């Protein structure tokens, strides 16, 4: 077997990210040690769980720990664990490659960002713990052996785009990462990471809560002035979720969040829970301060960490947190579950379902409190996670009312500040029965839609819904606080008061008689595209608009279903005309005076095409539309 070192190249994205780390885009270099210790802690968790599940695995779990070894003379720092370790393939896949979604997007944003703080936040969204070693080291050596395997692997790189990898026969089980530290007087090196006091300080600040002992040799001077080195455990090892907010500092909770999330920024909110009685568990949850880059990617991981009696069970327990709260991080420690519980069992477990319901209600109630007591923090939350939370309106019937209470929406009331539904209802005009809304691709498209004209003229507030998920939930949620949701692009719209209706009744009856022939003719001419042509009460300046019946699927939702592979029968909609517009009245006059419809059919097609474009729709034959329009314009010259 070939035992010579093999030189390989980092994946392109990993190489670019590595260079960013080497050139120190992150100002707090102390963080590298927290990341390495966090990785070592994960490896110990995984070994204990693997040994429990695989009785044939020959490993000693009696003294699982993390060692920190400092060599001042050689200027090296080694972080060593006796955890699960890695195989050769795992080393290549986990370190030579970034196997996480959103890499390209992260790199693009990092390159565009000129602000150091923004760069720090972006790095935090991605979580690139091992790469942070190159902020303080000229070279990194990793030696590892996976539990149950005979041969180990040695990996080494100076962060210049390549790394060497070779088999080793005498590797201890677990992983040892040795940093060959940059010179103490290096221009970008502020602290001496080969000093005992500095390493101890970092551990106690960032990793004190790690549940495994972190050991290192420290100098001790006795009463006679004699100096010796002795092995010390430098962390307290207290499970932070078992401590109250009075027993632990705010900083400790923040550092614990960074440990479990691999985020480098503080959480937006910290949530603690403790259930006692027939079913006991403790939970420590966090709402991040920003959305991760993979929040809307299908292959992302989600869920909180699950422990049973302080024993780590799994990293991303999806059964404890619904899809729409996938951004929530944290730990749940149950007292009454089996240590041998599997993901399949968790999906059916009654206790897990009970915990999930309570955790969800606690998260949503925390957001509700945030809304009333800390509006600025709430606005940050909703800006980052609002579209995800609204997914719960579709699939979490039990908590739908609470989600509606904490949701915010853009509206025509204030272009700068979103509104809650409660605020909308309080502003409703006297006699208004519905909460009006319009969905669309952007605010500008919605605000310029012909559907808005009558609502704007009469001062009715309209919710501006631009998130893709809005198309889904508005069809499944009927009302809020007794007020029904009504799309202004569906059904008939009648905004007139009783007095206005009475005074305009005779005029409307006359319009219906005057336009009856035109409406019948247009319905026949456009029958391939529309099911009816009628007069409109929602238009003030536009000649026409397209609306759907009350229960029709919207064109956007139709596209979404087709994109997901679900074919729907074509939905014909309704063309509404503004009888006060010169184009419409002129068309009526021309139709009444001509014995044939030569030329008018083209006008009818143009009228429909304009209405379709005005709502952001797509023409079935754009070139034909342009040809008809050009010909008609030419006749006006």
Task: Give a written overview of the molecule.
Strand 12 and strand 13 form a beta hairpin. The protein folds into four domains: 6-227, Histidine kinase-like ATPase, C-terminal domain (Heat Shock Protein 90, 2-Layer Sandwich), CATH 3.30.565.10; 241-378, Ribosomal Protein S5, domain 2; 408-487, Rossmann fold (3-Layer(aba) Sandwich); 501-636, Four Helix Bundle (Hemerythrin (Met), subunit A) (Up-down Bundle), CATH 1.20.120. Residues 114-127 have low confidence and may be disordered. 34% of the residues are buried. A nine-stranded mixed sheet has the order 1-6-5-4-7-3-2-8-9. The chain has 637 residues and is α+β, with helices and mostly antiparallel strands. Helix 9 packs parallel to helix 12. It has 21 helices and 23 strands.
Q: How many helices in DSSP terms?
A: 21
> Which spans of ≥5 residues are poorly predicted at pLDDT below 50?
114-127
Major sheet description: 9 strands, mixed
Query: Could you tell me how far the N terminus lies from the C terminus, measured between alpha carbons in angstroms?
Result: 86 Å
- The CATH superfamily of the largest domain is identified as Histidine kinase-like ATPase, C-terminal domain
Widest sheet: strand ordering? 1-6-5-4-7-3-2-8-9
The whole-angstrom Rg is 33 Å
CATH architecture identity of the largest domain: 2-Layer Sandwich
Q: What class do helices, strands and sheet pairing give?
A: alpha+beta
**Which topology of the largest domain does CATH recognise?**
Heat Shock Protein 90
**Mean pLDDT figure:** 85
Whole-number total of structural domains = 4
């Amino acid at each position: 077997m070939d035992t010579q070192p093999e030189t390989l190249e980092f994946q392109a994205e990993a190489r670019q990210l590595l260079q960013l780390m080497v050139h120190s885009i992150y100002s707090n270099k102390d963080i590298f040690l927290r990341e390495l210790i966090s990785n070592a802690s994960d490896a110990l968790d995984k070994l204990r769980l693997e040994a429990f599940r695989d009785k044939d695995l020959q490993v000693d779990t009696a003294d699982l720990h993390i060692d920190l070894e400092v060599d001042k003379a050689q200027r090296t720092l080694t972080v060593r664990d006796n955890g699960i370790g890695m195989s050769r393939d795992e080393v290549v896949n986990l370190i030579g490659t970034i196997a996480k979604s959103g890499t390209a997007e992260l790199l693009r944003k990092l390159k565009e960002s000129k602000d150091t703080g923004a760069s720090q936040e972006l790095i935090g969204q991605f979580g690139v713990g091992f790469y942070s070693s190159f902020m303080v080291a000229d070279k990194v050596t990793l030696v590892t052996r996976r539990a149950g395997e005979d041969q180990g692997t040695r990996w080494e790189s100076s962060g210049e785009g390549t790394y060497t990898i070779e088999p080793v026969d005498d590797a201890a089980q677990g992983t040892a990462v040795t940093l060959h530290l940059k010179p103490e007087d290096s221009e970008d090196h502020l602290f001496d990471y080969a000093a005992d006091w500095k390493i101890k300080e970092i551990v106690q600040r960032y990793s004190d809560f790690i549940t495994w002992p972190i050991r290192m040799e420290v100098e001790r001077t006795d009463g006679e002035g004699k100096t010796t080195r002795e092995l010390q455990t430098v962390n307290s090892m207290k499970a932070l979720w078992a401590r109250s907010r009075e027993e632990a500092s705010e900083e400790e909770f923040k550092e614990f969040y960074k440990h479990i999330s691999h985020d480098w920024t503080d959480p937006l909110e910290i949530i603690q829970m403790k259930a006692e009685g027939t079913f006991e568990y403790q939970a420590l949850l966090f709402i991040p301060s920003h959305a991760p880059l993979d929040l809307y990617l299908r292959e992302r991981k989600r869920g909180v960490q699950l422990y049973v009696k302080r024993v780590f069970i799994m990293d991303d327990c999806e059964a404890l947190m619904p899809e729409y709260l996938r951004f929530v991080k944290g730990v749940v420690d149950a007292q009454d579950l089996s240590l041998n519980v599997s993901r399949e069992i968790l999906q059916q477990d009654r206790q897990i379902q009970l915990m999930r319901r309570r955790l969800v209600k606690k998260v949503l109630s925390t957001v509700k409190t945030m809304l009333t007591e800390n509006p600025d923090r709430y606005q940050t939350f909703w800006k980052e996670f609002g579209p995800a939370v609204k997914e719960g309106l579709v699939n979490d019937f039990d908590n739908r009312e609470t989600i509606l209470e904490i949701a915010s929406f853009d509206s025509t009331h204030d272009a700068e500040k979103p509104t809650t539904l409660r605020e909308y209802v309080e502003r409703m005009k006297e006699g208004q029965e519905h909460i009006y809304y319009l969905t669309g691709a952007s605010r500008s498209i919605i605000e310029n839609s012909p559907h808005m004209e009558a609502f704007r003229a009469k001062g009715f507030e309209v919710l501006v819904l631009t998130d893709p998920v809005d198309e889904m939930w508005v069809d499944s949620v009927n009302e809020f606080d007794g007020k029904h949701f009504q799309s202004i692009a569906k059904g008939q719209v009648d905004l007139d008061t009783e007095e206005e209706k009475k005074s305009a009744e005779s005029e409307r009856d006359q319009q219906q008689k005057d336009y009856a022939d035109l409406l019948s003719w247009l319905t026949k001419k456009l029958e391939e595209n529309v099911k009816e042509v009628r007069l409109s009460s929602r238009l003030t300046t536009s000649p026409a608009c397209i609306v759907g019946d009350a229960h029709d699927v919207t064109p956007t939702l139709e596209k979404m279903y087709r994109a997901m592979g679900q074919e729907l029968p074509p939905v014909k909609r309704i063309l509404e005309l503004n009888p006060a517009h010169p184009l419409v009245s002129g068309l009526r006059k021309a139709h009444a005076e001509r014995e044939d419809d030569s030329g008018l059919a083209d006008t009818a097609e143009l009228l429909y095409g304009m209405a379709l474009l005005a709502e952001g729709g797509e023409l079935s034959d754009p070139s034909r539309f342009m040809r008809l329009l050009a010909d008609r314009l030419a006749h006006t010259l």
